[in-house]
Amino acid sequence: MARGAADSYAARLRKATHRARTTLRKSGVDYFRGDGSDWIALAGLLLTVPAIAWGTILMPVWCTPAALVLPIVAGGLLLRPASLLGLYAAAALALIVESLVLGPYTEGPARVTPGTVLVVAACGFFGLLIAQFRARVGVPWRRGGTMLFDLRERIRVQSALPRLPQGWHREMALRPAGGQSFSGDFVVAARTNGGRTLEVVLTDVSGKGMDAASRALLLSGAFGGLLGSLPPHGFLPAANGYLLRQDWDEGFATSVHLVLDLDSGDYELLSAGHLPGLQLSAGTGRWEEKAAEGPLLGVYEGAQFDPVKGTLRPGDVLMLFTDGLVEANDRDIAEGMDRLTGEADRYVATGFEGAAWHLIEAVAKDVNDDRALLLIRREP
């Protein structure tokens, strides 16, 4: 019986291995690197080389030897380096044939000059660099753009705030550094406790823009999985442990965790080295800092995060933001926060509708850093 069970297990293992290999062959990486994965593109480009050479000989006015850069550039975007070398050999042969047939005394654009050879060779060199980069990444050109678009949309979807019950208004604005599509700032949010509690985590990963995008994407997925799966006070310690396990060279991040009771308006704010939140009291019209204590994420194990408590009464507003919004080389953070609250006062009468994006434009439009701003208002 034991031998039969072992044979059955081995058979299941072989089937699972076969399925895994089949899945790998269908993946984008294997499709790019596998044998014959680009033979259709290679065959098509190889056919264009003699066509261009034939056109140069018969119709020199309409087709010149420099037109060989077209299949070379296309090959750099579509082919593997090994296939690309075959295309280059065909292009070099075409130049030799054109030079022999047309002769050195041919006048006009059809003449094969040393400059033409240098242009074709330079395009081939840069095409080879592009192909080697794609081979290292393992994503074909026609799939690479789609992958980046998908990553950007995943970050955008993960940063979307859930709908709140009547009597609450929320806004989130995120602007990456340098006008890029990726940011080191991100938000994850969820309604927990049967929908009665809103939990929001605003995180600023070390670095900015594309340099921090990959880490931000990884952390946003991990933090989104932790949020709501742990008690509120357990989230930041778990996030800190996760970041420590990554062992990144730039492995730290700041984060602020808001736990808001949507029935009473009571909230707790837990911080991991993040800037304090700002609460506007509708009764006094004054802004108050809400600073919780806690170290940066990813610095040391066993970190403790002590919350600060507050209450959002009707008409009150809570702002959470990253340092790119208030920090600059020519001013300190306190001055930047004063400027932010001064601009925010302009939106008290309008109920802060559309205020998040306009506040970033007003106080940090040209700052070369990622900027994120979260607004939560309890309607009066």
Automatic annotation (TrEMBL):
Pfam hit, one: SpoIIE
UniProt keywords, alphabetically: Hydrolase, Membrane, Transmembrane, Transmembrane helix
Ranges for domain PPM-type phosphatase: 164-378
Transmembrane segments: 40-73, 85-106, 112-133
GO molecular function: phosphatase activity
InterPro entries given in the database record: Bact_Sigma-Reg (IPR052016), PPM-type-like_dom_sf (IPR036457), PPM-type_phosphatase-like_dom (IPR001932)
Full protein name: Stage II sporulation protein E (SpoIIE)
Organism in which the protein naturally occurs: Streptomyces wuyuanensis
Higher taxonomy: Bacteria, Bacillati, Actinomycetota, Actinomycetes, Kitasatosporales
